[in-house]
Each structure stands twice: as C-alpha cells, then as structure tokens.
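Possible regression after last week's pipeline update?

I re-ran a chain I had predicted before the update to compare outputs. Posting the input and the new output here so someone can diff against the archived version. Not blocking, just want to make sure nothing changed silently.
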Amino acid sequence: MRTLIAAALFAAIAAPAFAQSTPRIDQRQYNQDRRIEQGYRSGTLTAQEAWRLDRAQRRIDRMEHRALRDGYVSPRERARIDAAQDRQSRRIARQKRDWQHY
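New output (post-update):
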C-alpha cells in the first residue's frame, strides 16, 4: 500500500516536470539566439540591435513559461508563441541586412 501511495505521489509531482518540455519551441528559440549571436559577431548587428533582439527573445521565453504553468501548451498558446517567433525571425533577418555595422 505504501509503495502504491509513494508511486502515485511521485507521478503527481514528476508529471508537470516532464510536461514542461516543448522541443520544437525550444529548438527554434535556440536557432534564433544563434542567429543573433552570429550577427553580432560578424558585425551585421550593432550592439543595440543585438540587445533589442535578445530582449524580444526573453519575452518569447516568458510567454512559453507562462503557457507551461499548467504543464500543457494549448493549441491557442502554441499559435501565439509561433506567431511571436515568426515576427522575431523577420526582425532578425531585417536587422541583419539593414547595412548598419558596429
């Protein structure tokens, strides 16, 4: 009986931790972070542009963490995050080719 209760308690505690993984969103965030870093290192992004883009990346991270509070990202939440990532991707591309260099 104790083993069953312990297993149920562990499952209740561990389930949200396992559910807090959004591999597709995380991979896209990682790719965009790399694009910003590469742009700064190559000189196609100024320090101020890189800072602004990083700030927007953190905002998207916060959106993801808020969506994961209940352990599940709903389709509506995922659509909002995807749209934010799409906008951010366009911003990164636009800033990298605006001919401003540091």
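Follow-up from reviewer: compared with the archived run. The chain has a mean pLDDT of 86. Marking as no regression found.
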